[in-house]
C-alpha cells in the first residue's frame, strides 16, 4: 500500500473560519475527512499532521523517511521563507507535492515566491481544498510510475 504524509503548516488548522473569502468555508476537519476518504478510495494510507511550528514540520518530514513514500505539503507562510523546510524536503529524498488553497500568484507580491518550489515535483495552487485530493492522487501515480 502506498503511504503518504500530508503536512499542513501554520494557521491551516483555522481553515473554514480564517479569511473565508480567501481560503473558503471548508473546515480543517472536513478537509482532512475528504483526504482520508480519497486515500481509502485510492487504496493509500495517509497520515495527516498539522503544526504551527517550523521545527515540528521538519521533524515530521524527517520521520516520513522511515515510513512514507511521498509527501504532500502546504507549508503555509513558511513557503515563502523557510530554507529549513526546503532543506528538510531535499534531505528526505521523497517526492513531494506543494499545495496552496489560495492562488498565491493573485495575492501579495511576497506570496508569489516559494523557496520550496525547487525541491518539489510540482505545485497545485488556487484550487481550494480539492488541490490536496488532486495531490494525493498524483502522488499515487508518481510512485506507481517510479516502480515500473
Ligand atoms: C497558503 C498561502 C500562504 O501564502 C499563506 O501564508 C497560507 C496559506 C495557501 O494554502 O493558500 O498560510 O499556503
Short key terms for the protein model shown above:
globular, 148 residues, alpha/beta, 19% strand, 5 helices, five-stranded parallel β-sheet, binds 1,3,4-trihydroxy-5-OXO-cyclohexanecarboxylic acid, Rossmann fold, 5 strands
Polypeptide structure, described:
The protein is 39% helix and 19% strand. It is of the alpha/beta class and 148 residues long. It has one domain: Dehydroquinase, class II (Rossmann fold), CATH 3.40.50.9100. The protein has a five-stranded parallel sheet with strand order 2-1-3-4-5, with helices on both faces. Helix 2 packs parallel to helix 5 and helix 3 runs parallel beside helix 4. The radius of gyration is 14 Å and the shape is globular. The model has no long low-confidence stretch (mean pLDDT 97). The site of 1,3,4-trihydroxy-5-OXO-cyclohexanecarboxylic acid (DQA) has 10 residues, from loops.
